[in-house]
């Protein structure tokens, strides 16, 4: 009987350790680690700490189940979108249907930035995943 309590206590401690280890691994939808890192060709020549534009930065999540969040956005000229691949494994290929940039192959946690310089409506998609799209209206 004395050992049953000891085994139960040990199992409770192990369970607490496992649960506490999992609690810190969630991704927040507003989290854009590496937003300072610039991977876009038009911003490649900037020095450290320089601002690429005077617009706002917007994050787009490319999720595991073929979802791009959000799927629609309204921006101003000078605003920047940062696409991030949140798929745990494998890659996505980000496509500008309006040929604003070359197709971008993105591994897990990769980020691609694009700054809008002209008014218009633009569509972005992920190759081979129908419905994984983003429509952007630039005013």
What does this structure look like?
The chain contains 1 helix and 9 strands, in the order H-E-E-E-E-E-E-E-E-E. The chain has one helix spanning 2-23, and strands at 57-62, 68-69, 72-75, 80-85, 91-96, 104-107, 111-115, 120-126, 133-138. It has a 5-stranded mixed β-sheet with strand order 3-9-8-5-6, with no helix packed on it.
CATH topology of the domain at 54-138: Immunoglobulin-like
Rounded to an integer, what's the Rg over CA atoms? 21 Å
Percent helix among the residues? 10-25%
By CATH reckoning, the class of the domain at 54-138 would read Mainly Beta
CATH homologous group name of the domain at 54-138: Cupredoxins -  blue copper proteins
Mean pLDDT: 77
Main pleated-sheet profile = 5 strands, mixed
Strands across the major sheet, in which order?
3-9-8-5-6
CATH architecture of the domain at 54-138: Sandwich
Low-confidence stretches at least 5 residues in length (pLDDT < 50)?
A: 22-53
Distance between the termini: 74 Å
Q: Could you spell the SSE succession in H and E letters?
A: HEEEEEEEEE
Please render the helix and strand layout as text.
Blueprint: H1 2-23, E1 57-62, E2 68-69, E3 72-75, E4 80-85, E5 91-96, E6 104-107, E7 111-115, E8 120-126, E9 133-138
Parallel strand pairs: 1-4, 3-9
Antiparallel strand pairs: 1-2, 4-7, 5-6, 5-8, 8-9
């Amino acid at each position: 009987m004395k050992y049953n309590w000891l085994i139960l206590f040990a199992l409770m401690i192990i369970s607490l350790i496992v649960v506490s280890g999992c609690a810190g691994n969630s991704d927040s939808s507003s989290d854009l680690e590496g937003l300072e890192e610039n991977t876009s060709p038009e911003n490649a020549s900037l020095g450290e700490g320089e601002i690429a534009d005077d617009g706002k930065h917007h994050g787009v999540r490319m999720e595991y189940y073929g979802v791009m969040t959000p799927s629609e956005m309204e921006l101003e000229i000078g605003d920047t979108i940062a696409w991030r691949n949140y798929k745990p494994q494998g890659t996505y290929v980000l496509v500008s249907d309006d040929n604003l940039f070359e197709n971008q192959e993105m591994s897990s946690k990769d980020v691609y930035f694009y700054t809008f310089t002209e008014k218009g409506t633009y569509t972005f998609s992920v190759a081979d995943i129908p419905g994984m799209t983003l429509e952007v209206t630039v005013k």
